[in-house]
Amino acid sequence: MGFLIFLIGLCFGSFANVCIYRLPKGKSLIYPGSFCPNCGKNIKWYDNIPLLSYILLKGKCRYCRKKISFRYFTVELLTGLFFFSIYKKFGFTAFNLVYDTFFLSLIIVSFIDIDTFLIPDVIVIPGIFLGLLFSFLFPEIHNMGRFESFIYSFTGTIMGGGALFLLAIIGKILFKKEAMGGGDIKLLGMIGSFLGWKPIFLTLFFGSLLGTLISLILILLKKRKIDDYVPFGPYLSLGAIISIFFKENYFLGFFIN
Ligand SMILES: [Zn+2]
User: Fold this and answer.
1) What backbone phi and psi angles, to 5 degrees, belong to 67?
2) Residues of the chain with confidence (pLDDT) below 50
3) Could you tell me the distance, in angstroms and rounded to a whole number, from the CA of residue 237 to the centre of ligand 1?
4) How many A from CA of 34 to the centre of ligand 1?
5) DSSP string across 180-207
6) Residue 150 region by backbone torsions, left for phi larger than 0, else alpha for psi between -120 and 50, else beta
7) Phi-psi category of 59—alpha, beta or left, where left has phi over 0 and alpha has psi -120 to 50?
8) Ligand 1 centroid from CA 32, angstroms
9) Which of 65, 66, 34, 32 is nearest to 50 (CA)?
10) What's the gap in Å between 15 CA and the centre of ligand 1?
């Protein structure tokens, strides 16, 4: 069963790759089928098998031999591993549907943010409503009654969005420039709607910590300049994923355990 869940994850990862590539270009997700961005040749089904095709083709297009971005492989693998981990941690329950949907939204948003510095509304706005709906339909994900679960999720949306909105205003006053985009605000709102208000703090804590650490490393490696714009979406997403696995002992409990 675990392996089957992993395979299903790989396929959804493959779909996430399509979204990451096509959504910012405003292209249809369904039609046409996959094609090589370099030579335009259609990719046959046997060259479109997650992970496997990438390895067999040694990361190159079968026709023009142009390198295929390693990111395709990474996104598929990460999605497969996440689906598997949620199954291992929570069994075959509503958690799979809720957290796997959540993860897919985050990975799509993160890579689009890295590419374009924009967080697509078309993902985060429906995401907020989906988080609220899931919290109402499956209150067991928050281990609460139905009504409390919905309020917990609703408060999470307001607090998540509100916290970053405040930070954005403070940043604007202190640094006199745009530090946080509206996309980040909506993204943390979505994270709050899926996870509830408590994990918001852990998400922000890990997100800022990782964001600072990774930026410092990139600056030291001279891969980024000190005043380059840093997309915050991927770090918020990472923070949210970490929170899922630590949220039973979040905050003080997390440091004590
Ligand atoms: Zn090609």
Assistant:
1) -60, 135
2) 250, 252-257
3) 32
4) 11
5) S-HHHHHHHHHHHHHH-STHHHHHHHHH
6) alpha
7) left
8) 16
9) 34
10) 19
The single-letter code of the amino acid at 73 is F
In SS3 terms, 238-252 reads as HHHHHHHHHHHHCCH
Distance 39 CA to ligand 1 centre (A): 4
The neighbourhood of ligand 1, an ion, using CB within 5 A, equals 36, 38-39, 61, 63-64
The per-residue pLDDT for 175 is 77
- The pTM (predicted TM-score) of the whole model is 0.91
38 alpha carbon – ligand 1 mean position (Å): 5
pLDDT digits (tens, 9 = 90+) for 61-108: 999 999 999 999 999 999 999 999 999 999 999 999 999 999 999 999
